[in-house]
Specification:
The chain is of the alpha/beta class. The protein has two domains: about 60 residues; about 60 residues. It contains four helices and six strands; from the N terminus they run αββαβαββαβ. The strands form two sheets. A three-stranded mixed sheet has the order 1-2-3. A three-stranded mixed sheet has the order 4-5-6, with helices on one face. It is globular.
Length: about 160
């Protein structure tokens, strides 16, 4: 596209990933956290809370593809529930002067990323509310401001663009 070659996941790897994700979200929901493709090494990385049964399934499902398995602190179902809970509480946080701009359950099972302007305030208030064991990862984030067509960006890129 536009003279740039985009990497393509080989069909056999894509098929193995699909089987792993489907089983991970159903049969192995208490273990499966997520997956990603490492295009450079042509392999998939599956994140999971350790489970011998799920590991055996992954080995059988991988067939002749390269699947790397990494430990995760939390499974997808747990993080999705936390994300839903936080989403439901967004109006309350805004009314308390703590707007949340982004929420995302991380595919590596590390936690739910919470994008806020004031990380220290969010950490203090949210962990006080949800408990210090809540799998929340706070990141500094401002509001998302989409570009209107035809308008130049308010913060121009720092690196030179093609042709200049």
């Amino acid at each position: 596209m536009g003279g740039v070659t985009m990497p393509v996941t080989p069909a056999d790897l894509a098929a193995a990933m699909t089987r792993i994700e489907e089983a991970g979200r159903t049969e192995y929901a208490e273990s499966y956290a997520g997956l990603e493709v490492d295009q450079l090494t042509v392999r998939a990385i599956v994140y999971r809370v350790p489970s011998a049964a799920f590991d055996d399934f992954i080995r059988r499902t991988a067939e002749n593809t390269c699947i790397h398995v990494r430990d995760a602190a939390h499974h997808h179902t747990e993080l999705a529930a936390w994300q839903d809970r936080l989403t439901a509480d967004l109006p309350a946080w805004s009314s308390h002067g703590l707007p949340v701009f982004t929420l995302s359950a991380r595919h590596d099972g590390a936690g739910v990323e919470v994008g806020v302007r004031d990380v220290a305030q969010a950490r203090e208030q949210m962990l006080s509310r949800y408990g210090h064991a809540a799998p929340l990862i706070f990141v500094e984030q401002g509001p998302v401001t989409p570009l209107s067509s035809g308008e130049p960006p308010s913060n121009p890129p720092t690196a030179p663009q093609p042709g200049g």
